[in-house]
Design a protein that fits this description.
alpha+beta; seven-stranded mixed beta sheet; FAD/NAD(P)-binding domain; 24 strands; 14 helices
Length: 581
């Protein structure tokens, strides 16, 4: 018997974007139903095991539900999140899943239905009206596609993109001029089936990992075994294995992912076996001190993520399309241009990740979009326009995952976990406003959406990227609105030159030593206190704009004192405060 549910908003897919969209819509007071394929919410951040997220790491970009998630993680992980060198934040994925489940369960107007996939989409007068699952039909006024691979837009036969665009289509500098061997072999970026290893100790022997193929020779030759493991180090002697260098990226016959359910299943089995083989290779090389972790994910193979980490999806043809030119820095600047629709800034979410593409065995060169900030590389900040989440051809639908209207090239920056969280929050808020104002998403005034995101009671989200503007700053809302009203004055270096405030709560330890200038905005310290701290020389990095400014003014060889957190995997101190003499 098929059950029927009627709701205001339906989100299909419990990935990062779908989960945050559901939370925001329900927090906005709208009756919401979230139907997920898996028993964990938040996709890439939890169920896919990518518990070392990239991008939006600067304190100024830790806003909205992304910032709230980081605060919740720090509360759960008392030892902190400074564990790996690939990310400024790493955590146990089970802890992340618990946080999202708690947020959902706190909302009485949000119904979560796990373990179901969409089978059919109903339309009436060019508008999505309902979605059918195996034993359930959900009718809704607004539906959101939050699936990992854009399954809903495919079922609805909405015009979409899959794969590469040539340079002639969007004039992207990194796009190919013609289809070639690379574009034919890898129509989209390769997924990775992440797994979690554990260090059981020198005197212990983990359970042997058996496989049929261990052909991963040289996978960490340029790094060494310790640095390889520390790439994705998590708390409690755990390691996230999401290794791109001849590792567990898997991209054989990627078209199977969207061909049929049987062919997708075939791809998934092959991707899982590839990762199992990689786990076996690691153990064979490093010894049985290392083995598959236990009790991480909620299924029998509990060291392996519930599903692969998908880097690319089907993508809608939307009202606005994000291309590489929209994420690259403006001339002589360190921010991308603001999206402008007939004189109105259409931005609804921010990101800053460097463009990164994964094709196993191939080094694909992209136009650079990074610069040095706070002693480390960070990505050029960019924004997501509202029109990128609205299909051009149908009403009653928004998208909120990697399925936005974006080119294949630009997807390498927009696909990252924090920016997808921001997209999901914006989509959830947009859907809620459409219900309140009785309009379709394409008719919603974007400024109304921007104002709602900026002034959200629980998780206000930035619209304009400003490197030196902390979300705690008393003038934060003023400067956000100022550049929405005066986009021609948006600074090319992303700094509004507001008066800097100190870190509100330092969690690090006291260090003293001699400052070393190692190059252009590269810093280190030769420690004198505490004397027992080893090693003695550490790189210095910061996520705080005031400290970034102070470090840039330090004299080589000067004696400095600071409050910082240390990260042994990265070999750096994360400076929270620089104590001025």
């Amino acid at each position: 018997m098929t059950e029927k549910i009627t709701t205001d908003i339906l989100i299909v897919g419990g990935g990062v974007g779908g989960t945050t969209a559901a939370i925001q819509a329900a927090r906005s007071g709208i009756k919401t139903v979230l139907v997920s394929e898996y028993s964990w919410l938040a996709g890439m951040l939890t169920a896919a095991g990518v518990a070392a997220p990239d991008g939006n790491e600067l304190l100024s970009l830790q806003t909205g539900l992304w910032g709230a998630f980081l605060k919740a993680l720090r509360a759960e992980h008392q030892a902190g999140l400074d564990n790996s060198w690939v990310s400024m934040f790493s955590y146990n994925p089970a802890v992340g899943a618990k946080i999202f489940a708690r947020w959902v369960q706190e909302l009485p107007n949000l119904q979560w239905i796990p373990n179901k996939i969409p089978l059919e989409v109903f339309q009436k007068e060019n508008k999505i009206t309902a979605v059918r699952f195996s034993d359930l039909i959900v009718e809704a006024k607004i539906t959101l596609d939050g699936t990992e691979l854009g399954d809903l837009i495919a079922l609805a036969e909405i015009p979409l993109r899959w794969g590469w665009e040539l340079q002639t289509e969007f004039d992207e500098p990194s796009a190919p001029r013609s289809f070639n061997e690379l574009t034919n072999e890898y129509p989209v970026q390769a997924p990775t089936w992440v797994f979690i290893l554990q260090d059981y100790g020198k005197s212990e022997k983990a359970k042997e990992i058996t496989s049929y193929d261990r052909n991963f020779s040289g996978t960490w030759t340029d790094y060494g075994a310790e640095k390889f493991l520390n790439y994705g180090r998590l708390p409690d002697n755990l390691f996230m294995i999401n290794w791109p260098q001849s590792g567990n990226d898997y991209g054989a016959n990627l078209g199977r992912l969207i061909a049929s359910s049987e062919q997708r299943k075939e791809f998934l089995e092959a991707a899982y076996c590839h990762s199992l083989n990689f786990a076996s290779y690691i153990q064979s090389e490093l010894g049985r001190r290392y083995g598959l972790a236990e009790n991480i994910f909620p299924h029998q193979e509990s060291a392996f993520a519930l599903h692969p980490y998908y880097r690319e999806s089907r993508r809608i043809k939307g009202i606005e399309t994000i291309t590489e030119n929209d994420i690259l820095p403006v001339k002589n600047g360190t921010v991308a241009r603001l999206p402008n629709q007939t004189g109105i800034i259409s931005a609804i979410a921010v990101g800053n990740y460097a463009n990164d593409h994964h094709y196993p065995g191939i080094d694909f060169t992209l136009q650079p979009k990074s610069f040095r900030w706070g002693g480390r590389w960070t990505g050029t900040a960019f924004t997501i326009p509202y029109g990128a989440i609205i299909p051009d051809a149908i009403d009653g639908l928004l998208v909120c995952e990697k399925n936005i209207s974006v080119s294949h090239i630009a997807n390498g920056s927009t696909r990252l976990q924090p920016v997808v969280m921001n997209i999901g929050q914006a989509a959830g808020m947009a859907a809620a406003l459409c219900l309140k104002l009785n309009c379709q998403p394409r008719n919603l005034d974007v400024r109304t959406l921007q104002e709602a995101l900026l002034s959200d009671r629980l998780a206000p989200a930035a619209i304009i990227p400003l490197y030196d503007l902390l979300p705690e700053h008393p003038d934060w809302l003023y400067w956000q609105k100022y550049y929405l009203d005066n986009p021609d004055r948006y600074p090319q270096d992303g700094n509004c030159l507001c008066e800097q405030i100190p870190h509100l709560k330092s969690t690090g330890s006291y260090f003293q030593g001699y400052f070393q200038l190692r190059g252009d905005r590269q810093y280190a310290i030769d420690l004198t206190k505490p004397r027992e701290f080893y090693p003695r020389v550490w790189d210095l990095v910061t996520l705080h704009p005031k400290v970034n400014q102070q470090l840039s003014n330090c004299q080589d060889g000067s004696l400095i004192a600071l409050i910082a957190r240390y990260n042994h995997s990265g070999g750096w101190l994360v400076v929270e405060e620089l104590i001025e003499n």
